[in-house]
Amino acid sequence: MKQIVLLFGLITLMTVTANAQKRRSSSGDFGYENAVGLRVNPWLVGGTIKHFFTGPHAIEGLVTTNVSNRRNVTFTGLYEYHIAPFPKPEFHLYFGGGAHVGVYDRRDYDYDNYWRHGDGTYVSAGLDGIVGLEYKFKNIPLVVSADLKPYFNFNGGTHFVGEEIGGASVRYTF
After folding, report:
1. Signal sequence: where (predicted)?
2. What is each CA distance from 90 to 65, 87, 103, 119, in whole angstroms?
3. What is residue 18's predicted lDDT score, i.e. its pLDDT?
């Protein structure tokens, strides 16, 4: 499963790079239009890609896996609205929401049903929220961010408060 996550991330990176064209940025005062990078916390690792489409409006895609569990991958799509309330324009806040689809190992994520239904995997969809702080470096094409991303699964284990709720990202901007 982790090989699938890495393959998907590599294909996404190649697609974005191949389609990237030099044009005037639509990101307003946020200093970049596209970014691709890595999202981590002590239990989670994955890829992230972000695109500003009009002014402060951005979409972000995440492909993550929980490294402390066996077989799992989650695909998340988020809409984010950015604001710059600080005197320094390099810092800005963002908030928004979206949805995810995850493929999880029943033993690791839904232990109660593991005893009833046996081993195997299941697919779960859910809703996500996000709020975070981002910093765009002036002289290098890099942005770092930290956020809270609570979520709720419609079926299976909910796990909406716990080890996967927060994260930090490092992205290359172009």
Report:
1. 1-20
2. 30, 9, 36, 48
3. 44
- Report the CATH number at residue 27: 2.40.160.20
pTM: 0.79
Structurally, how many domains does the chain consist of?
1
The two structure tokens encoding residue 150:
């609570």
The label of the residue with tokens 């809270």 reads: 148
CB-CB contact of 66 with 163 (8 Å): yes
Q: Is 112 helix (H, G, I), strand (E, B) or coil?
A: helix
State how far the Cα of 2 lies from the Cα of 4, in Å rounded to an integer. 5
**Under 8 Å CB-to-CB from 76, ≥6 apart: which residues?**
61, 62, 63, 64, 98, 99, 100, 128
- Average pLDDT of the chain is 81
